[in-house]
Amino acid sequence: MAGAVTYYQAWDFVVEIDKVAVAGYTDVTGLGTEFKTVSQNEGGEPSVVDVSVSTHNFPDITCKRGGSDNTELYDWYENIKKGNQDKRNLSIVQQRGGVAVKRYNVTQAVISKY
């Protein structure tokens, strides 16, 4: 007999804080990193171009169309609105049919909109 189906297995993405599922969403954007590169000619060989990463950017993550059975994210947002610097480590787990297929770990995150 299979285990009990949980509330969060119905969502495509699950937000976890301290490895505890706190919300589920059908759409999450901004997962990943944007890199900028710079090209420069080698000193001794002007025909050889060296391409290096110059900077990287982490875009804002936006979670849409979701739900939760607790108030953890809302409480976090309210705490930040009061002026507290409440940075947290969290994971966004992409899943299919309730099975995790990819995990994005975000360190020192701040919630800016709710």
Question: Which secondary structure elements does this structure contain, and how are they paired or packed?
Answer:
Layout: E1 13-17, E2 20-29, E3 34-41, E4 49-57, E5 62-67, H1 72-81, E6 88-96, E7 99-109
Antiparallel strand pairs: 1-2, 1-6, 2-5, 3-4, 6-7
Main features:
single chain, 114 residues, mainly beta, 5-stranded antiparallel sheet, two-stranded antiparallel ribbon, 1 helix, elongated
Regions with pLDDT < 50 over 5+ consecutive residues?
Answer: none
Helix segment tally: 1
Helix content: under 10%
Q: What's the number of extended β-strand segments?
A: 7
Structural class: mainly beta
The order of strands across the largest sheet is: 5-2-1-6-7
- Label the overall shape: elongated
Major beta sheet, specifics? Answer: 5 strands, antiparallel
Percent of sequence in beta strands: over 45%
Q: What Rg is obtained from the alpha carbons, in whole angstroms?
A: 20 Å
| N-to-C series of helices and strands | EEEEEHEE
Describe this structure in words.
With 114 residues, the protein is mainly β. 9% of the residues lie in helices and 51% in strands. It contains one helix and seven strands. The protein has one helix at 72-81; strands at residues 13-17, 20-29, 34-41, 49-57, 62-67, 88-96, 99-109. A five-stranded antiparallel β-sheet has the order 5-2-1-6-7, with no helix packed on it. Strand 6 and strand 7 form a beta hairpin. The two termini are 39 Å apart. 12% of the residues are buried.
